[in-house]
Sequence to fold (268 residues):
Amino acid sequence: MKATKREKSPDPRMATTLERGLVILSAFQANDEGPLGNRDLSERTGLPKATISRLTYTLTKLGFLLHDRKHGFALGPAVLGPAYVFYARLDMRRLARPHMRRLATRPGVYLSLGTRYDLRIISLESVTADWHAPLTGLFNLRTPMAHSAVGHAYIAGAPEGERAALMNALRTRYGEDEWPSIRHHIDKGIEEVKQQGYCIVSDELQSMLSAVAAPIQAANLVLTLSAGGASRFLPSGELHKLGAQLVEVAALIQKAAGGPHPDENDDD
Fold:
């Protein structure tokens, strides 16, 4: 099914370039058999090929499109950020909230539900033992994926294609000097999630802070469930105990949201 062609908006307040860029993104369909070329996008949107070429270049540079010179364009990881945030806010917070409150028993330690936006993990909801009401966005609002348990857990839980794209983007972001150390810690987190369902980042990466996180895969959505705080409140034994509890809760949320059972991901 082809996308409906759209004429230029008659509203003078509309930003035409932005409108056309969003029209291009809307042209991609779930049943597409492969990437789309400039000609395909021109046919679907009704925009001139010269305009398509200019806009697809810009969208590719910003990560909203992926470009294969031989085959064409496909949606890129940048489209996932706003979509994930919107979708996650609808139901996942409601599913996670009672479980997070149940685990929030240690003063100085917070529980947080997050998801990806760009190369960071943002908090959708957080709870502490001292304040059981939801604290939306107070914690992990802009936590770098490269240096955090929530980031490593997200990468571990991401589909293979998205994971590869994230690793490439992080390598570009941090450069060849920093990347080997960052890659080592990310690989360590991925292996921990594979072996025990959660990963830990202690004050080796975040001075005087420690955290543990587990991925949640539900309804084509990847989120992270984490617990963190000052390292003095979270010795190694407590981190592992919390990690096991997070895995149990993540499985409950995943099941309630219609995601795969954790055992279904153990084929490797």
About this structure: The chain has seven helices and eight strands. Helices lie at 16-26, 38-45, 49-61, 80-103, 149-157, 160-196, 236-256.
